[in-house]
């Protein structure tokens, strides 16, 4: 988690203050449930809530932990300092530290997911707006970095929208995966605590009870969560890569917005570098780097070992903060992306009609020329364009073997751009439910 | 994909024969749809189906590819050899190679997922059977590899069942992710082919039309698929790790089935090594190794580059074949696992009651002793057990500070195993819907 | 390991035949050493060598393994079938299977490394030749995909040479890492076999004795080996990415060689796609995918568990075969790369002098203008080029604030290309020791 | 980088203060070199050094960067504030930001490597001391977690020493890989700056000049560096795993030192958990997570893109700080590890002699029994021990087929532990050069 790549909203979820606040709420709700079951006195349960409006002193808790070497005991000791040892006597009864820690981690990840969904919605909104804005802005489609056939800028935005929408659906699933809580005791048997406590705490904290836990919530859930973030990060890289390509000097079909005061480089003032999307490419690598350790965290020894903990202290904040920042940076890039339709048209015409070769090939076949022959005819004329800078249409019109199969009007018609965009509305309807 | 770690059913999905069969079906269905649209003659579409009962000559196709350096063209050439060039004239019309290749890959991955689901169901059935068989087989729960509190072997199987059931649900999602087809032409605009062809082919091949494709189906789908396999593999490692621990010489609570004729080691004939679960641990690493390249495959250049292709030629078969094999090996291990309840009981009694310390701690607190004091009392007596091999219960009964708070009968009661298993039925009901 | 991405030389290293041949040699050399120590009869040791010219029947060994479920025992049984049970009686005495398996794996990896070094040498030779060929071929240097300052194509080749030379040195180190053998018995104590046997076998097999082994050779060695392959693969990706960029339609500064008969695409005959370098990009991902499982293989339980074995059966051949193929494919691409110097010059002139802005900035500073002011002056004129397509030099000559600091001749001089190439020889001397 | 897993010495290397100090030194040394070349006035170069004893105001630099959006310009602006705009006029002349940034990163990584080497030396010293302390402490060697043959605790420490020593040698190599600097201008051509400046700056900063750079130092160097850290981390995991196994309740051959006041768990006061080594296992995963993004950073576009930058801002500090902490935590664990030789002996005797079966097998073969028969005889008696808890030696002595081949004294001798430790000194001599 690097300050320059973080937004305060997400950072706040991972602050010590937030953590202790959630710990407190879990303990207090557990007391309520224990009181309702008659396990602890009602007044003690109520008394715990006094701390609701108090401030947990992070430095003091750290100080206690330095002695006890146990974070939850340190917190409980501090809580007792706040509400009085007598009132605090029944707090945490029958629970094990992981009941608090794991349930808290779930709350934090669920909240993080909620923030990420907001970020994704912003990206989706931007992509949709730009897709409709450029629905009919024709540009050349490229495979292998080589001109293929015309497409539109709107389709590019639309496919990124579809990809991000899939990412959103995956994140909703991933959120559900980790939104479980466990208050099940030392090895998950509820020996010392009634399952009703777990149910109450989970309901209050917006979680589902973990059907079967050990000392901890099973880590396949978290692995799935971080793997999902990794896939979303890769989609961000996908969009970033497209924009970086568009901004290349020789292509220049779009540019990241360049604020008037911004300096591109200390040495080359004219340069407008796609630094945001390059940065997003790097951030995607960082988010993805959480996937492997999360997968390695799944196989814990018996009812738990604590090897996962240090990993999660890092990747919990790091992956969510970085992805959150990246989503908003991406949204910003898309919202403000400067698109150059004229450059798109200029690029498309670079090879004077060559990109229409597929249509001509098809027309020849349909006119009865064998596939092999049609291929040969098209290739022959295409090579003249490629090697001598000839105009493809003119060459075709001058090739007697071609004109034997196709009339001049038919050849002309093959160079109509509308041919390539005729299904854009249908595709938009598939993606957006409207066009 | 290593022969010794593969099952023929899954290998068959990835054979050249299967691949060409699917290519053929896609081309033939596409011809049907084109004929229905009036784009190509009905009789040509029908003629293509002649090849339905013919055998595609893999060696011949390879031979042609060696010349053309293009696999789909090689196949189409061979198809024309089989059904006659005239009949084959309209095959592939308006399509691009990736229409065939990507749709085929989806069919293969969907079929692979179906096989994997069968493997998971076998694992689930085995886990459920063993869970009910050992629902009440008490063993010690361990955190950090250290004895904690009693649990049951049935709960161990049940939690693996819950984890695998989650894995199964994830795989169903992942299957849906990749079960899309695309027949959308060179850059996905349907310029040369009507979307109706895609709809027909997908319906016939059991796929959903990709809402918006470029030349290819977007690779975030595949990334999600392989990431899901990676999570399932990690769950296999989790189960394997538990069994490896149980089979340790000093623990010996369970053993992989050891067939009478089997030789454990060339040097130490008495050894029964958990080689299957160790192997599963390695196989899990292999399946997971597909995740990162799948994530790196997402960001293709513009409407496609072919960098993903070599990766998928490897991880497509490798990850599915290996996971398929691992699931059946795992099922076999679980089905035949030899469980030693007496050893479990013997291990649990190793520290003469020490594992009940949590109950005693709680009882002291409830009897009005402060948390800090209760902790001190329990720790004092526990250390005698630890260091001098004393019996925990006897020590407690002899400690006046303890007996001042708890009667001998109350202390006795804390060592009752039923206390720890009383909620097993409730947990089973959560996991299995029955208990 | 995919046939289409493999070369027979490397595949042969991993064949069962090669493996059994190495097993045999290790066993036979061990017998020699045992005989020299007087542990086994000399005539038995000599008799073993009878099998030197016999063929090991892989199918027969597999058949035996199907019964014994142990590969080394199966081999030894077959060896006894070949040379007679009496003669074979002392084979493998005091050894454990891993002595054979691990030492064999080292031999295979060392041979694989030797082949890889040959591949790297071919790449290095190609890069050097092309570097000198294009030492003075000026092209624009780009940062962020944006034109920066002139450089030469030779420098591009030269830096790839330097990178590959580093890779070669790393591979030499990595080869040394894994070129150790161990004949140390069940847990590495030499209880049943004298260290002299290990020394003799290693000397004969071209290995160093592992200073301290357990049942196995420590896996940090292998992790380092595969990590090194991963770094080299990334360097291949680096070169491939450069070429893919150069071949982009809008850039077209170089192209992969396109054989006359080759078909680029079934649909677009004019296309010449950089499919080899795209493929190399994917192959690099595959080689890298071996790194994480190799790292996960390091932490084995106690004196060994067998989890590493399945991983190595896959990544051993896969990573080396794929990298070997990639190196030769890369060499081929570089050797035959078609370079377009005129296009390089045309691209460089796209922004009419703008790339010289750094020089002008510097000249202004040196002429006494403050850094801030110089920056402002350069930026002001650069923006006119960018936005209005003006000529940079002309604008500068027309800007009184600029000409107040720099004379027309001085401005002129800033646009001399020789300025940028003046140190090429010095750099070449650093890289190649000659220029 | 998590405060609880970091040491201030390593954190300091990555502080903004340190970074700006290095930036300053690079700029100042560059001015010296430029003055020596006569490019800038000598007095300006000298004036820059005035800032040597000044404090760079991090907040002020951040403030400027918020406007300029360029960190190096922000720093230079602040430097001009400190030493006066006139004196600062020639600072950074002919340089590009990356000259400063990349050279600084090299200095930081080299310093980090130096600290890591100190940590490794501490680990090595601890391992050596414990190895000699327990050179003759016999314990059972285990393969597959199953008892195999006796070994000694000293050999365990010794093999970890050998592994860490390899790690140290790798780190020395890795340090050399990244200890290069570049002052070569916008695309690495030295167009605007003489190579002599680079040479001077590198010499002053303890670096080697990068033979050929672009705008940046090539990232294969950094990939190798982080890959090396990943291998070392895996070795830490290897040692940690051994200790975790030894501390298992059923094994208990060693324990992490447990300070008197330490609380193991809030619920189970008797527990002494191997939390440090579990934590090290997790930290190893974190360090390794830097490897993949570092590999992905190698392929930059043309003369550079900035995608690597955000990755390095994270993994630079994270991986080195975490590994540094882990090395010292590991050293601490080893130094204070509580070893239980009696428990080792007790564990070894668990299967009453069964672990000697290999010796008996060998003796039978040497006595003329066929390998197959010997195997059968040993297995027969071993199974009685395994299944009925019999004593292995007694069973052998009572088996007439065995005694037909071996005398009672010969059988007795097979159970002598000295047989297994006889080569320990030779192995120690290999590892430590002494024994």
Automatic annotation (TrEMBL), chains A, B, C, D:
Residues 352-432 form the Adenylosuccinate lyase C-terminal domain. InterPro entries: AdenyloSucc_lyase_C (IPR019468), Fumarase/histidase_N (IPR024083), Fumarate_lyase_CS (IPR020557), Fumarate_lyase_fam (IPR000362), Fumarate_lyase_N (IPR022761), L-Aspartase-like (IPR008948), Pur_lyase (IPR004769). It is an enzyme of class 4 (lyase). One of its GO terms (cellular component) is cytosol. It comes from the Bacteria. This is Adenylosuccinate lyase. Pathway: Purine metabolism; IMP biosynthesis via de novo pathway; 5-amino-1-(5-phospho-D-ribosyl)imidazole-4-carboxamide from 5-amino-1-(5-phospho-D-ribosyl)imidazole-4-carboxylate: step 2/2; Purine metabolism; AMP biosynthesis via de novo pathway; AMP from IMP: step 2/2. The keyword Glycoprotein does not apply. Its EC number is 4.3.2.2. It catalyses: (2S)-2-[5-amino-1-(5-phospho-beta-D-ribosyl)imidazole-4-carboxamido]succinate = 5-amino-1-(5-phospho-beta-D-ribosyl)imidazole-4-carboxamide + fumarate; N(6)-(1,2-dicarboxyethyl)-AMP = fumarate + AMP. Belongs to the lyase 1 family. Adenylosuccinate lyase subfamily. The keyword Lyase applies.
């Amino acid at each position: 988690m690097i300050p320059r790549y973080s937004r305060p909203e997400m950072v706040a979820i991972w602050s010590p203050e937030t953590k202790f606040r959630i710990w407190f709420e879990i303990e207090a709700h557990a007391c309520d449930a224990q009181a309702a079951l008659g396990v602890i006195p009602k007044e003690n349960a109520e008394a715990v809530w006094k701390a609701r409006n108090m401030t947990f002193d992070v430095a003091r808790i750290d100080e206690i932990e330095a002695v006890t070497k146990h974070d939850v005991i340190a917190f409980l000791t501090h809580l007792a300092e706040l509400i009085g040892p007598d009132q605090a006597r029944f707090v945490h009864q029958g629970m094990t530290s992981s009941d608090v820690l794991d349930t808290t981690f779930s709350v934090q990840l669920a909240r993080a997911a909620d923030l990420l969904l907001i970020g994704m919605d912003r990206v989706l909104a931007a992509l949709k707006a730009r897709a409709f804005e450029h629905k009919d802005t024709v540009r050349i489609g490229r495979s292998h970095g080589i001109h293929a056939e015309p497409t539109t800028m709107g389709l590019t935005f639309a496919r990124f929208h579809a990809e991000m929408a899939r990412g959103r659906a995956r994140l909703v699933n991933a959120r559900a995966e980790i939104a479980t809580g466990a208050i099940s005791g030392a090895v998950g048997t509820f020996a010392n605590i009634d399952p009703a406590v777990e149910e109450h705490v989970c309901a209050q904290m917006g979680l589902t009870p973990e059907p079967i836990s050990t000392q901890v919530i099973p880590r396949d859930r978290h692995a799935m969560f971080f793997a999902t973030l990794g896939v979303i990060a890769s989609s961000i890289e996908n969009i970033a890569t497209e924009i970086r390509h568009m901004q290349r000097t020789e292509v220049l079909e779009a540019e990241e917005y360049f604020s008037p005061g911004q300096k591109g480089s200390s040495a080359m003032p004219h340069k407008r570098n796609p630094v945001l999307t390059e940065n997003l490419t790097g951030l995607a690598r960082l988010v993805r780097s959480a996937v492997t350790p999360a997968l390695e965290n799944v196989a814990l020894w018996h009812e738990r070992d604590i090897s996962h903990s240090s990993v999660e202290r890092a990747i919990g904040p790091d992956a969510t903060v970085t992805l959150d920042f990246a989503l908003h940076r991406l949204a910003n890039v898309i919202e403000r992306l400067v698109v150059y339709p004229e450059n798109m048209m200029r690029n498309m015409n670079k090879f004077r009609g060559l990109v229409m070769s597929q249509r001509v090939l098809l027309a020849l076949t349909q006119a009865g020329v064998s596939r092999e022959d049609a291929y040969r005819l098209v290739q022959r004329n295409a090579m003249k364009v490629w090697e001598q800078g000839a105009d493809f249409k003119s060459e075709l019109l001058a090739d007697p073997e071609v004109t034997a199969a196709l009339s001049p009007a038919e050849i002309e018609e093959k160079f109509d751009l509308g041919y390539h965009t005729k299904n854009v509305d249908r595709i938009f309807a598939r993606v957006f439910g409207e066009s």
